[in-house]
Amino acid sequence: MNADPLTVADAAALLRAGRVCAFPTETVYGLGANATNSDAVLAIYETKGRPRFNPLIVHCADLAMAETVAVFSPLAGELARFWPGPLTLVLPVNADAGLSDIVTAGLQTVGVRIPDHPLALELIAAVGRPLAAPSANPSGRLSPTTAEQVRRGFAGRVPVLDGGPCRAGVESTILAVDGDEVVQLRAGALAREAVSEAIGRPIGVAASEAAIAAPGMLSSHYAPAASLRLDAAAPEPGEVYLGFGSPPAGHDSAVNLSPSGDLHEAARNLFSALHALDATGAPRIAVAPIPETGLGEAINDRLKRAAAPR
Ligand code: TXA
Ligand code: MG
Description:
Elements: H1 8-16, E1 21-23, E2 30-34, H2 38-48, E3 57-59, H3 63-69, H4 74-79, E4 87-92, H5 101-104, E5 109-113, H6 118-127, E6 131-132, H7 147-153, E7 173-178, E8 181-186, H8 192-199, E9 204-205, H9 208-213, E10 227-229, E11 240-243, E12 255-256, H10 263-279, E13 284-287, H11 296-307
Parallel strand pairs: 3-5, 4-7, 8-9, 10-13, 11-12, 11-13
Antiparallel strand pairs: 1-2, 2-6, 3-6, 4-5, 7-8
Helix pairs in contact: 1-6
Bound molecules: threonylcarbamoyladenylate and magnesium ion.
């Protein structure tokens, strides 16, 4: 499989022809399509088995392109200082953008970001159009942080531009800007505290009810095949242990997210660790406690969804 790796030019040609193609970002791999071509965008939903009411993030090569897609208030412009980077802004959609309605699932807002990955930026620029891209996994499953995980997830049916393992490892932080309020809709690879400090104002978290009402925040998500037990001080018989920091005395971690207790390293390793533990066929995974600060907020969010009843 994959004797000839795709080049950026190959991937751009597929996307310009209205096909889907997976590509690397600094967070996770995205399943891309031309955001201005409804048939191409539909193919994303079909490939993923994604519910149609769940809108897609639009990826841009630069601020000029982002400004064709969304309307930026001065506050939104300030937040754009984190681009390229793992931040998605939910802003009023620019009606002249020519975006497919399917991208926004009929909402008046659009999620937009400029990813911090050289291949992603080159690809978007080569296509010359914004790319709609959800994470490149079948709906409800673990997000991929390597090209191989994308290929396996879709049984080799999706072309992948391989950019190596993703640096951040969890999805972008999603912030909605509404007047002078900034609300976090999804914790992600950019810590809420860092943004709050930079713009000098507090950032609230969407109430969980609102978050569930917001499309895509389904409680069971990012699910491995194994069941998960969170906040486990030590594994019980029959469980494999996903550690963080020093393992409890007398127990080995099957995988350790970060032996030194570094949250960036843990975020980078999270989905790969769950993919790897799943591949062992272990039915139950016990997960060490993770502090709820910085990137811990995103890690705990993904773990809670992975552990949710389905
Ligand atoms: O890091 C990421 O964000 C990755 C990479 C590929 O960029 N993408 C990603 O996309 O995680 P996806 O589709 O798996 O998650 C996008 C989330 C969904 O929960 C969706 O509901 C939300 O963004 N979203 C998109 N547009 C929105 C909007 N207009 N209002 C509220 N939520 C929105
Ligand atoms: Mg996803």
